[in-house]
């Protein structure tokens, strides 16, 4: 019998050395922070920055993909939950009921991170697919070798931060408040001045539940406080002192508007040509630069003028540039000094071309 027992193999950390870096600067940065009225960008780990930023209405996350896409990215999706968790924990500290998160990744990268997002209170809304089209692979894929269909997509998943009142999820709180009044469910229809929709939509305990629009919330609230058991008043109060207004209620969910005709499939070629930020000689600075039009679309859909957008993984600050053009306030950080330098050059060029009025 062989007496030698092999020591168990140590868990190896996945490599995090980025591949495909095209440009590297060795000079020290002259500035590691830059700001104007709408934008603040820093060079450094965003985990150290979040506490200095204003609360976000929208977070655009375009970080690790598990493909060694940049130095610090993991070599496969298995490392991504650990990579993202400190960021997601921080986002949840500063998010409000109005905050939307757009989570860019590969399909499998997103699947790996989804449970962490759920754990910290982010609720899935929709997965959007960016289809770069066949031009992206240009017929160059050896499918006999890779044994799968060639990939031409990335996804951008919409999450909202779960709204709660006194630690109770919003829907349960609303239904619970109505129950507390002692009024029958169907009295909600009388309250809202409709035949049967209110009880069915706003007090539904399942997936048919609808967020009452602020004017309907005000009607429910006013009726409850007038006709509900006197000893339970105030009803529908967020601070426990006075009933919530329609305006307060309206701020209990994330903003969203969809331009006519936009669906969850975004047909758009990969970034090329003039928009790709390059050094003299034509080398692209960052292989993961995202198209401005897609960034603009998601930010415009989920924020209003002057709202705050976070871009935790700046790269060349595409979400920040899009935010600035839309008149939103952006906070971003980039950990890699080379990318920060060129990202800042891009912002400065933007400021010259499009000064704030
Ligand atoms: C996928 S790229 C983002 C590209 C960007 N969306 C654009 O359009 O240019 C991710 C970037 O996040 C940066 N990064 C990674 N970890 C970071 C961290 N903890 N804090 C700040 N930046 C980080 C990487 O250096 C990389 O440039």
Key structural traits:
9-stranded mixed beta sheet; two-stranded antiparallel sheet; 2 domains; DNA binding; RM_Methyltransferase; Rossmann fold; binds S-adenosylmethionine; alpha/beta; Methyltransferase; 357 residues; 434 Repressor (Amino-terminal Domain); 11 helices
Taking all Cα atoms into account, the compactness measure Rg is: 24 Å
Order of SSEs, N→C? EEEHEHEHEEEHHHHHEHEHEH
Mean pLDDT: 92
User: Main beta sheet, described?
Assistant: 9 strands, mixed
Query: Counting H and I runs of at least 4 residues, what is the number of helices?
Result: 11
Total beta strand runs: 11
Low-confidence stretches: 1-15
CATH class of the largest domain: Alpha Beta
Instruction: Going across the biggest sheet, name each strand in turn.
Output: 1-2-11-10-3-4-6-5-9
In percent, how helical is the residue content?
Answer: 25-40%
The CATH topology of the largest domain is Rossmann fold
**Which small-molecule species are bound to the chains here?**
S-adenosylmethionine
Please report which band the strand proportion falls in: under 5%, 5-15%, 15-25%, 25-35%, 35-45% or over 45%: 15-25%
CATH superfamily of the largest domain: Vaccinia Virus protein VP39
Examine the secondary-structure arrangement and name the CATH architecture of the largest domain.
3-Layer(aba) Sandwich
Distance separating the two termini: 84 Å
Shape: elongated
Number of discrete domains? 2
Class from helix and strand fractions: alpha/beta
């Amino acid at each position: 019998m062989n007496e030698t027992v092999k020591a168990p193999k140590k868990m190896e950390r996945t490599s995090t050395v980025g591949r495909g870096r095209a440009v590297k600067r060795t000079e020290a940065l002259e500035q590691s922070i830059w700001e104007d009225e709408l934008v603040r960008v820093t060079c450094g780990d965003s985990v150290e920055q979040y506490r200095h930023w204003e609360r976000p209405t929208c977070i655009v996350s375009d970080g690790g993909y598990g493909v060694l896409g940049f130095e610090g990215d993991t070599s496969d999706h298995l490392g991504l939950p650990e990579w993202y968790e400190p960021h997601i924990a921080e986002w949840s500290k500063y998010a409000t009921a109005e905050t939307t998160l757009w989570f860019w990744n590969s399909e499998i990268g997103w699947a790996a991170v989804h449970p962490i997002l759920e754990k910290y209170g982010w609720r899935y809304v929709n997965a959007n697919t960016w289809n770069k089209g066949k031009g992206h692979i240009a017929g160059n894929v050896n499918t006999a070798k890779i044994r799968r269909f060639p990939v031409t997509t990335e996804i951008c998943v919409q999450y909202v931060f779960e709204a709660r009142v006194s630690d109770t999820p919003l829907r349960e709180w609303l239904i619970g408040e109505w129950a507390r009044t002692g009024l029958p469910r169907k009295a909600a229809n009388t309250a809202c001045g409709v035949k049967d929709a209110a009880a069915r939509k706003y007090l539904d305990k399942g997936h048919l539940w609808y967020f009452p629009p602020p004017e309907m919330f005000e009607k429910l609230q006013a009726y409850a406080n007038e006709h509900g058991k006197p000893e339970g008043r105030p009803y529908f109060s967020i601070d426990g002192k006075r009933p919530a207004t329609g305006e307060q209620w309206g701020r209990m969910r994330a903003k969203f508007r969809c331009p006519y005709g936009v669906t969850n499939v975004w047909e758009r070629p990969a970034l090329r040509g003039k928009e790709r930020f390059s050094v003299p000689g034509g080398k692209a600075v960052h292989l993961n630069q995202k198209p401005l039009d897609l960034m603009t679309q998601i930010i415009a859909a989920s924020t209003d003028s002057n709202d705050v957008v976070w871009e935790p993984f700046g790269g060349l600050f595409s979400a920040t540039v899009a935010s600035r053009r839309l008149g939103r306030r952006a906070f971003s950080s980039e950990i890699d000094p080379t990318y920060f330098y060129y990202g800042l050059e891009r912002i400065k060029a933007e400021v010259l071309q499009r000064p704030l009025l």
